[in-house]
Amino acid sequence: IAGITQAPTSQILAAGRRMTLRCTQDMRHNAMYWYRQDLGLGLRLIHYSNTAGTTGKGEVPDGYSVSRANTDDFPLTLASAVPSQTSVYFCASSESGALNEQFFGPGTRLTVL
Amino acid sequence: GQNIDQPTEMTATEGAIVQINCTYQTSGFNGLFWYQQHAGEAPTFLSYNVLDGLEEKGRFSSFLSRSKGYSYLLLKELQMKDSASYLCAVSDSNYQLIWGAGTKLIIKP
Q: Which of A13, A67, A94, B75 could form a disulfide with A100 if both were Cys (CB 3.0 to 4.6 A apart)?
């Protein structure tokens, strides 16, 4: 692993299904983030974690949950997917907080039908 | 509310100079970032400004005026590989990044 990885790369999902997007970093960064990116809109923060064991809500948290059991992993779960959650999801990490450069994973393209 | 404004799209010629503007209205200010994002790829960090003035880094420079809520990214000696979207983001009073929608830069030969 080099940097930050996400899985899957893309996914088509039926509405109502549960889905977990995976994110792993090997840089020992304290802070991690989940964003969604939609055409014509800026990146929007879904959830974040400033350190292992803590999480917080971002701008658009509804319908999503996260956990941060350890430093490296930060999975994002859609409990019951809806079509409006069709988007590209980026995971990012930084040494600590939003004053440091964020490193982004390659993204997951999710389509909910 | 919080708002970051950037032009949607700009076109420039290879070898020329282009300036991409960003204006912001946020609750608090803890710095402004510029990121580059090629189509289908992840954003990558370009610059960070927290004090007024110009920061130069090779062909790219970034300027900040906190009193005017304004920044620009200056790209010199444009190359075809500079064709990408450029994202402006501000760290607000909660140290969360507020992102603009991005400026798509098209470079023509």
A: A94
* Tens digit of each residue's pLDDT (9 = 90 or more) over B51-80: 999 999 999 999 999 999 999 999 999 999
Q: Under an 8 A CB cutoff, do B31 and A99 touch?
A: yes
- Indicate the residue type of B9: E
| Kind and range of the H or E run holding A56 | strand A56-57
Q: Do A45 and B43 touch (CB under 8 A)?
A: no
Beta-sheet strands, E only, within chain B: 3-5, 9-13, 18-25, 32-37, 44-49, 53-57, 60-65, 70-75, 84-91, 97-99, 103-108
Mean pLDDT by groups of 10 residues along chain A of 113 residues: 90 97 96 95 93 95 97 97 98 85 96 97
Chain B partners of A97 at a C-beta cutoff of 8 Å? 95
How many Å lie between the alpha carbon of B43 and the closest alpha carbon of chain A?
A: 6
Question: B96 and A58 in contact by Cβ < 8 A?
Answer: yes
Q: Which residues of chain B have pLDDT under 50?
A: none
Residue A19: φ, ψ to 5°? -145, 135
Provide φ and ψ at B104, rounded to 5°: -80, 120
CB contact under 8 A, A44 and B99: yes
